[in-house]
Amino acid sequence: MDITSDILPDSLYYPLPPSVSDVLTYASELEEEGNNINFKWADYEIKNHLLSYVKVGLVAQRVRFYRLWRHAQENFKNFKEYCEKGLGKSYWVIKKIIEAARVTLELAQAGFTQLPQYEAQARPLTKFTGDTLIEKWQEVITSAPAHRITATHVSEIVDGEPQNPKKRISLNKDVYDELVEKARTAGKKPDELLRELLGNYDPTDDYDYEPETQTEIVVEDEPEKTEEPENPLTQKELENWLLDMKNLLAEHYGLSFSPSSNSS
Questions:
Q1: What is the pTM of this model?
Q2: Are residues 53 and 103 in contact, defined by beta-carbon separation less than 8 angstroms?
Q3: Are the C-beta atoms of 122 and 88 separated by less than 8 Å?
Q4: Burial code of 78-87, b = ≥16 C-beta within 10 A, e = fewer?
Q5: pLDDT tens track for 178-203
Q6: What does each C-alpha distance from 170 to 40, 173, 182, 229 come to in angstroms?
Q7: Which of 31, 61, 85, 111 has its CA 20 to 30 A from that of 105?
């Protein structure tokens, strides 16, 4: 099959993420059905879409590996630009989905029927492959019931620490306020905006930055600084200045000073 073809045979066409219109139509149809929805159908729909991230990741990997983005009408410069402008996602987000899909596929091929149910749950496992990955996942699924296996739980089992432990950085209030305002304009949280900015920093297609921790931003008012004179007085200049001041006081107010008080 020609992978550069713009038209796929019907037998190979499996739509992945629904469009906005698809979502609205789907929601409207569910609303019309009300309580007449068949449970077996509903159960199938839920279970069939739990692993949708795997389909997206597997296809995205092939778009990246075979450089299929070069055949787009938009003339993307690289895969990173395709993610941003073609998909509306940062390269970092798509890369995480690709890695999570790889992990889940490898576990499925190893015979597991219980798999990570979403990308964040698979994320702590992306550093492993082969027998090590199998051992780690086996340890996870035997440690708790399926409904209690969260992304944090996986990370605690795999790494012995909570996923994305928070660290702190200090920002002065002006910088923080600017960050909050830009994040609000973009419809994001401040840490989400920072992550996206970091994820889009490198303009090359080989970009491989992976932030391992979430950062908790702490706003600290800058302490007041005591301004120092640009040209500090020397000891001799200070003594002369004090002497002039005492002479001025003596002249205007009739005050007298002992000889020992003429120096500091």
A1: 0.55
A2: no
A3: no
A4: bbbbbbbeee
A5: 888 888 887 777 777 776 666 554 44
A6: 53, 9, 18, 29
A7: 85
